[in-house]
Automatic annotation (TrEMBL), chains A, B, C, D:
This is alanine--glyoxylate transaminase. It comes from the Eukaryota. Its EC number is 2.6.1.44. The modification N6-(pyridoxal phosphate)lysine is found at residue 157. InterPro entries: Aminotrans_V_dom, Aminotrans_V_PyrdxlP_BS, PyrdxlP-dep_Trfase, PyrdxlP-dep_Trfase_major, PyrdxlP-dep_Trfase_small, SP_NH2Trfase/AEP_transaminase. CDD domains: AGAT_like. Belongs to the class-V pyridoxal-phosphate-dependent aminotransferase family. It comes from Sesamum angolense. It is an enzyme of class 2 (transferase). GO terms for molecular function: alanine-glyoxylate transaminase activity; L-serine-pyruvate transaminase activity.
């Protein structure tokens, strides 16, 4: 079933879902299993232990919920808060908008802060909930050190798995809050999970066997590469992308350098060009999948996702493709200019692959 | 990563998750894709249309939710009811108990009817919600004809997929109720789906690409076999199993014939035997996965799941295994007796495989 | 592409190709690789070392040739013999007939011995070539101890891989013979392999990357189970099959007990029944693949292959299927009788799965 | 088992084995099957019919041999010639050298022509044998129109399959020659195949079930893209590569334009650089697999394979990688220059993907 076959690989550069390593695809290529037999709890135990490492927490309690990032958000909120509770939410892009919408629909009392993000915001006695969907396992993230109470991500982002697992990590303070939080929830209720953790069977309902083995393989690859090296690789690819954008004479949608993301770059196109046309042509002509601008930047930006299982030459292929599409739609780009700028940086900064030295 | 390798195939006879056809495993063996590119909506459109056939509805609206059966339940309840609404719930086994628990925790006003199930119950003006997790696509099920308002199943049951997709189908009356239902929900909110259905992009959040292609393959196989033939096959395997149980001199936990299930058989063991020991040995010695008795029948029954992608000889292999385990634990079974009874029935009733005649 | 879809698993009981373990299918689920990069020689080195263990040789030199068993035969002959050389060949079944045919067509001078096989035959100064296609890795086989000069097998037999790799092991004496053997050969020439062994690149032409990784996984599984346990399992399944045949009142085509094979059982059918009809119906009605009788026993016997990645309940499912087919074609079998006889033996002799104790 | 894990995809640009489409990997992800049951002959029939299309023959007879290109050569020679027969062989590169070596070792009487290749050579009454391993299914090739008697290719080249199938196509004249050719052969004997073709069972020995289904998928993709479009794509990628080489100031090892290959480009490096170091670094630092120079050009050239399942952005990623490696080893390349030259050409010449217009 391939409605839209094209020769060669699809170049997947949306900011999620991202490319799955062949090793993970292999690990998931399997029949179902009885999740009550000893093998699955034994596997789960290692996952719960190891997943904490990507949050940099030793004291947090992780939950692997069969859901998406949206569900992980809902789990974080409903387990820690009661209807009417006040939330101070920071508006910084489309997904914060969506999370705020969820917060309001779940009957919390939301104060939206449109001001700039800053470190000082987190000196407070309140519960500190962080949406790490696009950052955990790609950027420097330190749950314990930064005093975060609930952090969460989704399997289809930097972990490079299929969609379907929301990974939520709760501090002791968050767990305590869950004992009294009055938000109505069952599917997302951490206490159901905790009951089964205690029993050693781990699952209040059926998990995806395939995603469990996939997560095992994904974590193994991350630890083999080294989490710090993974983060450095994301920094390298992010910087290379930004240098290319600059070389094309285009603007990063993110205005301040300290806000740049190493997982996605939103590129502003000239006002006479429709960024959706860029995304459409990239896919139709070059088998390149770019991200659309969403909401108020629809038509004005396109996004290059550069997170997950990805390397330098994949990115350079994408950048070469973006150049051709820009030319296709009439933007006077100098072909090769972005690739040259990115390569100059990468040729200096890319380390040897450790296992091959 | 196989903690507990054993030679040969695992014989998976829990009542879910069930065996995945090789064709479906193949269809899911793929990289992620951009779900906003045209291919995924085109695929989704065919799925939403075709999935209605397994509910036998033409007027219902299906939702393919990245969740489990428990989540599908929650979706059915929170989209149609407001806190305090009265539910009449029928207590018929462990999973009805769990659903009732969910109903109570979601603050509905639940009347539990322990009396017998009967046809007359559904002559009423109330919304009619049916948990079809263990029956849809395996047993005769007719959403429209029976006036059902919400029916639901999970991917890992008769559809023979991995866990991770809750499939919910809502009547026009249920959809109307969802416009006014005051239960708090976001992740499970049908109205978010309907908004994207209208846009033709279908997904309020990221779906599992792999499960979409898997569902396509699963539906194709079901339609190739013929839904009526699938149901007849389940009836055949169910009856064969019950004949074996009888031949062993054991009792079906289900007491009345009209309640027999063609997807699972719970077998009562003599009081001097612990049914958990049967399940344990089956797995440890014969690579056979049977279901435990749950809750009040824990230790007293074991369950043979016979649903999903399964054929006669697989079942006979399982029955031969159960006989050996029964003997292992001291029950004086006549080896071969159950297989003989089941075979006598199957040898008479099994049709030729249509594609091979 | 499945011309002949049937519900449930195919029950594969031909004497090859046999069932592939899910672990091996996974290991082979991969893209091609540059076989001249360091990874492939590193992998090959472990394979050449470990494959010797299944021949029970320490001094032999193995060759992993991209061919079938027929090619492995040709490799054994053309590398050790010159046209006109005399071969004493033992005629013991269809495949010896085929090998003898090959020997004659390759211009050797073949003495066919139709007499009984016996131990004394191998006290001689001649080169001793053994076709182990259906025995190596399933039966007790000791290349060094028995003084064998060339032993060979194919990947699709007891190793439980896809077809495509002929595995040949040569003694020092055989290697020496290959230096002077005048038979014309290039593709099969061991000396081309030896040249690349010396270089450490191993391959005179392109190997199948997938089969190399598959062989790695297959060997890992065999060593995890323990080669002796693998052989014991084959003995157990062979004996169980023979007991079932006896219980059905049918004859084993192999007349003397010391000749019984633990990898395949050829069952003689009554003269009024066409064994091909049994094979045909098994496939058409029960999704069971049995082996045809070949050549002079065509129509008179059917074969049950019981080698490779297989366990007790798979075999019992097959035996139950054979019983039903026998009844289908009019043979007055008592349903359950063969399964009962086999189960009685297996219930006594099957060990616990070591990893699950 | 990944000895040398690196993040992101391997960029496979050796001239074979090449990248396998995900669709083909999926098709091969399966258990073994009984090749004597009706499904496999039915599949084989379609393959033998369809494979002729890639040779552009209607009268030829194809053989799908479980072997490599080297084996396909041997099949072509031994089936059509007798020892001592005269062969006029054209020496044009490393693989012709290897084939000539094979011809000599098979005891033919070989005249090696080192002169230039030209059209006039094929006006002759002799059998005309063509090694199309690196061209069939990638370049314009017309067996019937050009009067070719035996043409052959290997699965791991333009067909983009794993290694393991030699595909040989014989004209009526070649088949006739095979009736009298006295070269000794059994495994490669076409007459054994023809005997089974007549029986409708097709296989003289066990084929790889996985490669048969893989070939079916590969042919389906080629026909969906259109063979002419496949050839045009190879021409486009070949030209883009040559433009990049030129922009780098380097020389194509092939000296005359009419000899340029659209499947591989051998790049001559300056005499102070060791081309093996380029190949080594490409793999160690950028996960890029390039081809070594072989034999007399070892150390002097590296090769970029651009055949099989490949698209524009994959190639541009490779070219960007080559630029960085060239800089790594001290060659004063202008980063981005080759990509710019290739992009300028590709941006003009790449068609929309037909299924996506």
């Amino acid at each position: 079933m391939d409605y839209v076959y094209g020769p060669g690989r699809n170049h997947l550069f949306v900011p999620g879902p991202v490319n799955i390593p062949e090793q993970v695809i292999r690990a998931m290529n399997r029949n179902n299993e009885d999740y009550r037999a000893p093998a699955v709890p034994a596997l789960t135990k290692t996952l719960l232990e190891d997943v904490k490492k990507i949050f940099k927490t030793t004291s947090g309690t992780p939950f692997l919920i069969p859901t998406t990032g949206t569900g992980a958000w809902e789990s974080a909120l409903t387990n820690t808060l009661s209807p009417g509770d006040r939330i101070v939410s920071f508006l910084i892009g489309q997904f914060s908008l969506l999370w705020i919408d969820q917060q309001q629909r779940l009957n919390f009392n939301v104060d939206v802060v449109e001001s700039e993000w800053g470190q000082d915001h987190y000196q407070h006695p309140a519960l500190f909930l962080v949406d790490g969907v696009s950052s955990i396992c790609a950027l420097d993230f330190r749950m314990d050190e930064w005093g975060i109470d609930v952090a969460l991500t989704g399997s289809q982002k930097a972990l490079s798995l299929p969609t379907g697992m929301g990974i939520v990590c709760a501090s002791a303070k968050a767990l305590k809050a869950s004992k009294t939080a009055k938000s109505v929830r069952v599917f997302f209720d951490w206490n159901d999970y905790l009951k089964f953790y205690k029993l050693g069977t781990y699952w209040p309902y059926t998990p995806s066997i395939q995603l469990l083995y996939g997560l095992r393989a994904a974590l193994d690859l991350i630890f083999e590469e080294g989490l710090d090296n993974v983060i450095a690789r994301h920094a390298r690819l992010g910087q290379a992308t930004r240098l290319a954008v600059q070389a094309w004479g285009l603007k990063n949608c993110t205005q301040k350098e300290e806000w740049y993301s190493d997982t996605v770059t939103a590129v502003v196109v000239p006002s006479n060009i429709d960024s959706s046309e860029i995304v459409r042509r990239a896919w139709k002509r070059y088998n390149l999948s770019l991200g659309l601008g969403l909401n108020k930047v629809a038509g004005k930006v396109f996004r290059i996702g550069h997170l997950g299982h990805l390397n330098e030459l994949q990115l350079l292929g994408c950048l070469a493709g973006v150049e051709m599409v820009l030319k296709d739609v009439g933007y006077p780009v100098k072909l090769g200019s972005g690739v040259a700028a990115a390569s100059a940086y990468l040729q200096n900064s890319t380390p040897f692959i450790p296992s091959r030295i």
